[in-house]
Description:
Elements: E1 3-8, H1 9-19, E2 24-27, H2 34-40, E3 47-50, H3 54-66, E4 71-76, H4 77-93, E5 99-105, H5 118-125, E6 129-130, H6 135-152, E7 156-161, H7 162-165, E8 168-173, H8 188-191, H9 195-216, E9 223-225, E10 228-236, H10 237-246, E11 250-255, E12 257-259, H11 263-272, E13 275-279, H12 285-292, E14 298-299, H13 312-318, H14 344-354, E15 358-360, E16 377-379, H15 385-397, E17 405-410, H16 411-427, E18 432-438, H17 467-473, E19 478-483, H18 487-497, E20 503-509, E21 522-526, E22 545-547, E23 553-555, H19 565-569, E24 575-579
Parallel strand pairs: 2-3, 2-4, 4-5, 5-7, 6-7, 10-11, 10-13, 13-14, 15-16, 15-17, 17-18, 18-20, 19-20
Antiparallel strand pairs: 1-8, 6-12, 9-11, 21-24, 22-23
Helix pairs in contact: 1-2, 1-6, 3-4, 4-5, 10-13, 14-18, 15-16
Amino acid sequence: MSEKKILLGNEAIARGAYEAGVKVSAAYPGTPSTEISESIAKYDEIYAEWSPNEKVAAEVAIGASVAGARAMCSMKHVGVNVASDPLFTAAYTGVGGGLVVVAADDPGMYSSQNEQDSRMVARAAMIPVLEPSDSAEAKAFTKLAFDLSEAYDTPVMVRSTTRLSHSQGVVELEERKERECVPYERNIAKYVMMPANAIKRHVTVEERLKKMSEDASGMSLNRAEYRDLSVGFITSGIPYQYVREAMPEASVLKLGLVHPLPRKLIEEFASKVDRLYIFEELEPVIEEQVKSWGILKAVGKELFTVQGEYSANMLRERVLGQKCRSQAPAPVPARPPILCPGCPHRSVFSVLSRLKIHAAGDIGCYTLGALAPLSVIDSTICMGSSISTLHGMEKARGKEYIRNWVAVIGDSTFMHTGINSLMNMVYNQSSGTVVILDNSTTGMTGHQDHAATGKTLKGEVVPAINIATLCRSLGIEHVYEVNAFDLDGLEEAFQRETKRDAVSVIITKAPCVLLKGVNFPNKCVSIPEKCRKCGACLRPGCPALTKNADGTVSIDETMCNGCGLCAKLCKFDAIETRSKK
């Protein structure tokens, strides 16, 4: 008797890869995709790695596929942008062993700097896309994706969203099917994409998609559910669940393969329903194609938004005309995002703020330095952009303009794409100060290791890249390491290096306070009778500190991690650090 288990969508995708006989998995952590690789790492039969970025992860998976093994790479939607270079060409080369790309989109931007639809990228790349609607389908579609990849000689994308990735459902566990690697045959015309070969392969790709579109109408993952024919929905993924919840009697064409679309099946469904709605989150990928076929009665984005997540209530309100909220929700206290108590970034930012130094920011926990009361970060674009942004400022406005600017970037993000940007500063004879906030982890996505931590995804201890040595190897003479809680050392370094007519790097070192094994020996305790009510301790915005009605400060000892920043800022000894008992 098979075992059933409740799994996150991400865990189910990992299970599907395991059961499909995947041999190689590569990824860079990024919410909402991170748990896929963390789950895969638990299977000894699969080689799993954190790659330095998504482009490398895709190339690792492509290499494994060319060698004949089933391989997978996983990433969030913005990671697809980073990986698009190899993915677009992999569509031309085709595969050896099955090759699957998992893209986790983030409608609503719960943890992302933009909102984009990976189906559009896959369509441009001419890569098929499967979109599951629950955890059971997440496992099943992942397995099917490998079969389709090998049957049609193409990479296949499995698209998830935050709601699917992080919701749970019952999944039936099956045995892993070990697969022998496809024998490698040298084929320069297939795998070497010089122009003469690529021109011919483009024809192959177009023929492949045409064949898949024709076959798709008979594929079981696309199904028509006929009920009340007065209204019908074309939908896929999580929105399918909302349709079934809000309008259980409606007819539904549930698409599992969302690119290429099963035209024959869609035209047949549209002809049988009186009113037709296309219910898809984000961009009108399905809608535009359906309307281009002359099915003009379809209603989509003129009724439903292109922004954020959908819901069952959206259908009730916009299709059924129901008013779903009879009363205003109870007020909820505001809880803005904030750096954790004891976070080393707060210490660094407090010094930058006091010196009135602006920072070109990057992607990570430290992006929160843009918020009051620190208000240091002035820009955040994408992974690795802080260094290039500073370089662009210097080239546009000159050295004097950036005397009160730095670029800030985390250790993991520096390994991701910051290295190339720093190399560019050196090569193009820039000047400017780069601050690498080294907290020994990929903090924002839940403490994953990277090439500079000395540990792999599988937990193996390996040589750690020395960031300072790496920077010096680029020809940078001025590279300094400073304890992130050494306020005087930080101030001296910032003031000195921002005046320098050269590229300089300051590496602020202190581990993330939430890492296992990190434990400050002290707690901070306020002494109200000594407090002068100046507010200096409150300026970094530590959530463990509260201003009392009389102007004095209290410290919540259950929140305090004992970093001692507030005590260092108090000139009147009104805060003491005491040993934990």
